[in-house]
Structure formats: structure tokens, C-alpha cells
Amino acid sequence: MRIVVTNCNTTREMTEEIVRGARAAAGPGTAVTGLTPDWGPESAESWLDSYLSAAAVMDALRTYAGPPYDAVVMAGFGEHGREGVRELVDVPVVDITEAAAHLACLLGRRYGVVTTLERSCGQIEDSLELAGVGRNCAAVVGTGLGVLDLGDAERTEAAFLAAAERARRAGAEVLVLGCAGMTGLQRAVGDKLGLPVVDGVGAAVKLAEGLVGLGLSTSRAGSFAKPEPKGRAWRPARAAGPGGWAARTDGPGPSPGDASPPR
Predict the structure, then answer these.
(1) Which pLDDT tens digits describe the chain residue by residue (263 residues)?
(2) Where in the chain do CATH 3.40.50.12500 domains reside?
């Protein structure tokens, strides 16, 4: 089984960190490929960033030329695009926002999300509502850190613990890491908080493995039917990465002559 994990931004170092977290959660028979959009925001921290990111991720999957894959994990917490990707590809698509919230609902009556900037909280709340898991969310709180600040492990942990106490006071019995760049933090903060802490990347990988193992994929009966045939002007291939393909993190990218069909 192969899972493609899409980063919602163009920062390759973050893709590599996300892939490490995904591989740590994956079973022994699962290969993980990271996919970094070749264009879009360097970090997704606003509505504008999120919509740009959604288009860039779909473009990266549309032009993907790596090994065939069995599922897609979208590593952008609260970001847009999951519905479009479900229309685009013929494999299960698991968004870390949905995955983390669904697992949190199995562990407690109400959960809280600890994310980066306060301005991201409303967007995450909307994403949870759209996914049908908003009613169980006690709070979405920010740490005040930007996505690109998360590389400072000590500062991130301290900010997360402080924000987590606000979520706990609001009634959260389970906590969710509200950014893909926080993956791995659950091991450091879980015992200190005395609460289960769910990492969306690991949760999404496990759900993707389960869907593939059960032979389940996106329904084409209605909402996620294949888009109607029409002209669509995508970003020209010459403006993308080498050979016109988005960059991958699992090895050398395809040569310009690689004609492997995307899935």
C-alpha cells in the first residue's frame, strides 16, 4: 500500500517532518510519499493562503508522476480542498482535520483543538462544522505561534501547554494538534496534560490504511461524482517544477520525459 501525503504549503522542510510523522504511524506494509506543491503559500495561515493552497495541492496531484498510490492524506489542518481532491482522484482521501476530530470523538465527549495563530481558529471551526464534528468541539484555541515558528520545539511545547489549559477549562476532555507541523508533539505533551492528544497526521494515515484494507473509496453517487467534462485552464506546466511536475520528497523527481499517468 502507498499513501501520498500532501503538504498544504511549499515549505519542503515541513513536508519532510510531516512524512516522518506519517511513516511513524504507518503499518509495516505501507509506503509514504510526501508531495509538496510547487507554488502557493510558504505557510497557510489565512483564508487567502488556504484557497491558494487548495488549488496548488489539486494541481500537484493532477500532475503527480510518481509511483501509483492507494490513498491520499491531506496534511493541512482546517485548510480547503478536500472536497475537490475527492472529485479529482480515484482513491480514498483523508483530511487530517476530519481524521483527528473523528478519533477524538471516540476518546471523550468533547475535544479541543490547539492550533497556531488565533486568526486560524474561525477557519478551523468552519471546517469542523462542514465535516459534521463541530458540535463535539469545546474550543479551538491558538498558541500565537506561526506555522514556521514550530521548528522551535521548546517554545512550541510551552505555547501548546498554555493554550491547552484554556481548551481544558472550556470543557475539552481530549486534545487535537491543530497543525500538521505539530506532528510528534503529542508524545511530549500527552503525559504532562493527563489527556489524550490526537495527532491528525497519524490519525489520517491509520484511517487511510483502514479504508484501503476494507476496499472502500469515495462514493461517486452524488456529491463527489466526477466533475463534468469542460475546459479548465490549469497552471501551465512550464511554470511548475523541473519537467513541469510538482516536487516529491521520497527521492529524485521524474524526468521531463516521464509520461507516467497521474492517479
Answers:
(1) 999 999 999 999 999 999 999 999 999 999 999 999 999 999 999 999 999 999 999 999 999 999 999 999 999 999 999 999 999 999 999 999 999 999 999 999 999 999 999 999 999 999 999 999 999 999 999 999 999 999 898 999 999 999 999 999 999 999 999 999 999 899 889 989 999 999 999 999 999 999 999 999 999 999 999 999 999 998 765 544 444 444 444 433 333 333 333 34
(2) 2-95+206-248, 97-199
Distance of CA 66 to the CA centre of its chain: 19
Q: Which CATH number fits domain 2-95+206-248: 3.30.1490.20, 3.40.50.12500, 3.30.470.10, 3.30.420.10?
A: 3.40.50.12500
Question: What predicted TM-score, i.e. pTM, was given to this entire model?
Answer: 0.87
On the 0-12 / 13-18 / 19+ scale of CB atoms within 10 A, 22 is: buried
CA–chain centroid gap for 91, Å, is 16
3-class DSSP state of 217:
coil
